[in-house]
Request: fold
Amino acid sequence: MSAHTSPADLFRHSLRLLLDGDIPGWVGLWAEDGVMEFPFAPPGWPERLEGAAAIAAYMHPYPDHIDLHELIPRIHETAAPETIVVEMRGIGRLVKTHAPFDMTYIAVVTVKDGRFASYRDYWNPLAVLEPGADFAGSAR
Reply:
């Protein structure tokens, strides 16, 4: 993506990559010093990932645990043109158990030079506490 790509367009592109299971492509949208944070992470789960390599390691097994069928975003622009707030719902199934996957998120995303620089993911930790929702290998 170009340095002139809007944060909303970059985010939409990232969702297409996630739906395709293209984790290397998704990680390629990150700045080398990008930071991903999980303010609602349950105990034992990461709260902060620093750098594209750490984000890649975290995301690498994701398609082995969650088969996403749909990501439904509502993107809100902010007074800071490089930052968006996204309300999102992810729908799919857990690969191991075939149980339905349905999680809600709010993300605060900052883009610099056409790359993700900061991504605070306020995902719903209750979804991982439900029976059959064992995808901890993708998130720890």
